[in-house]
Structure formats: structure tokens, C-alpha cells
Amino acid sequence: MNTTVDLFFSKAKKWQPEMQSLRALVLACGLTEELKWYQPCYTYEGNNVAIISSFKEYCVLSFFKGVLLKDAKGILKSPGENSQSVRMAKFTSTKDIAKLAPILRAYIREAIAAEKAGLKVPLKKITEHPVPEELKSKYKELPALKKAFEALTPGRQRAYLLYFSGAKQSATRLARIEKCMPQILQGKGLND
User: Fold this and answer.
1) What pTM did the predictor assign?
2) Which residues pair with 77 in a beta bridge?
3) Are 152 and 184 in contact (CB under 8 A)?
4) Secondary structure string (H, E, C) spanning the chain
5) Which of 47, 60, 166, 178 could staple 88 via S-S, CB 3.0–4.6 A?
6) What are phi and psi of 176, to 5 degrees?
7) How far apart are CA 111 and CA 107, in angstroms?
8) pLDDT band at 192 (very low <50, low <70, confident <90, very high)
9) Rg, the chain, Cα only
10) pLDDT, tens digit, for every residue of 86-123?
């Protein structure tokens, strides 16, 4: 147990018993507990395996490489349509966690085995993401923008492309691009 994580759990306003239950389950599998992204994160030899988070309607145990898990019981869900690797199990009671404990332990062991084996999630290449026409037009107007965008890390490029493409109307896409141009030119990501 990690004392900084103890503090996280003691301050949790919602889902405290459920998250403590998940914590005990994960720690029993031999993972190291750390606090990352303000959440209890569980690692194997420095590699992220799982994380516990709370939301308004539920708490979750998420697996960083969850897409590699077999999930024969179908309890793991994608957190969103653009998630490539993370899969999570949602909980609203300690009773549900206790009922699924053997399955969760098996999934945790499978996630550890994936880390031991050095398995990687095949991620979509940045070139496979569509570039909105409005961004292509801005590239023509300002070649430095294209150069700055291509210098960003793939994750930052992906975040911008998803954000720009998420707008249904061309005017909104253009407004988003124009708003983000200074950040891109400074080499910053969408959330930096």
C-alpha cells in the first residue's frame, strides 16, 4: 500500500467502499501501487497495468491494455469510441465487485502476463486518422502550421485531429482549428 494513495481514498467523496474493494483485489495480485494522474494506478515492473477511477454514476477498474484481454465474461467496455487500448469494468456496489472478484483476479493475472510477455497494443497510425479539409486549407495558408503540427507527438496530433473532426459543421471545425493554431505553433498539445 502507498500512503499517498491512502490519502486519495480517504478524501474520496463517492464510491469509497467500492474503490477500497477494488484496491484490495488488485493489491492481492502483487501489483505496485502508485498515484498517477491523481488516481490509484497499479504497475508491474514500472509498466502501467490498471487504474481505479470514480465517476458520478460508477467507479471503474480500467486496464491499460484491456483490448488484449480475452474478456470471456464480457464485462470490459471501451471508455469511448476513440479508445484504442483501454477497457474498463464499471461498478456501483461492493456486492458486484465481490461477485466478479474471481473473474477480475483472472483478468489482472492475464494483464500481468501480457506485460511480462512485452505485448503491445497495435495502435492506429496517425496517418490513418482523417485530416479535416479545413486543416488542409490552413496548411496551405500557413505552411509553418503544417510543420509545427507534424513536429507534435503522435498522441498530440491524434488529440487535435479527433477534436477538429468531432465538429459536425465546417464553420465549427474551422473555429476550433483557428483557436488551437497558437498552441500548435508553440508545440503544445490540446490539453497542455
Assistant:
1) 0.77
2) 88
3) yes
4) CCHHHHHHHHHCCCCHHHHHHHHHHHHCCCCEEEEECCEEEEEECCEEEEEEEECCCCEEEEECCHHHCCCCCCCCECCCCCCCCCEEEEECCHHHHHHHHHHHHHHHHHHHHHHHCCCCCCCCCHHHCCCCHHHHHHHHHCHHHHHHHHHCCHHHHHHHHHHHHCCCCHHHHHHHHHHHHHHHHCCCCCCC
5) 60
6) -65, -45
7) 6
8) confident
9) 20
10) 999 999 999 999 999 999 999 999 999 999 999 998 88
**54: which 3 cell numbers?**
470514480
At 115, which amino acid appears?
A: E
| The three three-digit cell numbers of residue 178, written as one number | 483557428
Q: CA 70, 72, 73, 79 torsion: positive or negative? A: positive
